[in-house]
Amino acid sequence: MHSGWSIAIFFRNGCTTGHRTRPFSLFYPHALSPSRPKPPIMDQDPHEDLLAVIRSHAPDPNKPASVLRREFFDFYTEVQEQEGESPFMERVMIGESGVQGFWISVPESVPDRTVLFFHGGGFTAGSTADHLGLCTRIARAAQARVFSVDYRLAPEHVFPAAVEDAVAAYRWLISHGYLSHRIVPVGISAGGTLVIDLLLLALDRGLLLPPGAVCMSPAVDMMFGGASVEKNRDYDWISAARLNAIRTTYLAGHDPNDPLASPAHADIRRIPRLYIQAGTHELLFDGIAAFVKKTRWAGVPVRFEVWQGMFHCWQVFANQVPEGQEAIDHVGKFVQDVLSR
Prior knowledge:
There is one protein chain. The chain is of the alpha/beta class. The chain has a single domain, classed as 3-Layer(aba) Sandwich (Rossmann fold). It has nine helices and eleven strands. Helices cover 33% and strands 18% of the residues. The protein has helices at 48-56, 65-79, 132-142, 161-175, 190-204, 228-231, 240-251, 285-297, 322-339; strands at residues 6-10, 15-16, 19-20, 88-94, 99-105, 110-118, 144-150, 183-188, 212-216, 273-279, 302-307. The strands form two sheets. The protein has a nine-stranded mixed beta sheet, sandwiched between helices. It has a two-stranded antiparallel ribbon with strand order 2-3. α3 crosses α9 and α4 (161-175) crosses α5. Mean pLDDT is 90; it is low at 1-5 and 12-42.
């Protein structure tokens, strides 16, 4: 086993292999109501009510892109709403493609510590604005400034536009005096895929590499294989139909086995250390686990955290499930550890 390889499994009783996390309740505030749901019966997913709410707001590929994105924004901003002082934000333009980046800072942010963030949304929706709650939590946990990128979206801008935007954002930071060894790329879902793509292209184009990167629930194979796609269909909010729609819209006929579309097919031998989070109830779980195994055998140092009973992008729902904030805290610790080396 490679010396850089580690795995931790987090269970619902608050215990973990090799670590201790605080015990947490099986109950959480309802996503859209302050009332507490009734105690779950045996054999019932304790997140069933929350998942039902998320499913009812899941992106509908049959709707126009503008409508899909507006509904995604409305729901994501509502579930991430936070009390207290708002973060400081500054907008900048990246390159000539019209892509925007947003600096997000909190009082805890260390000026020379940068998290380069890529949001989720299946390459067809999402923005800094509807991931602001997550970005703010990461900034606090990592004690860093977050630079969040509003990369171009499909169907207006299909593959590889988002990949090129990720590299352009990294180049922008370097060209403006931010040192590569003080930057940690972090992404969730589609953004997690872009993190790996960024590392691959940075290698290919001779750029200085960051010391590590974080992927939360990444989509690593656009064929979306693995038994978990069927096994977890009742335990995740995303559906196989949604995954297929993402592939169709984002790739627009491009080969799904292209290594930049599906990093599971890439040569990853020289990329920096990775920290990957996945929930056992995710449709994508088997694909992520297979990618981790390949990365391990390629000799890349990997920390793989398996969160028992968690669904796709549970970190976004930190207001509703305590595991969300716990996972974000772990991301923050990884960033701090990597940047202190």
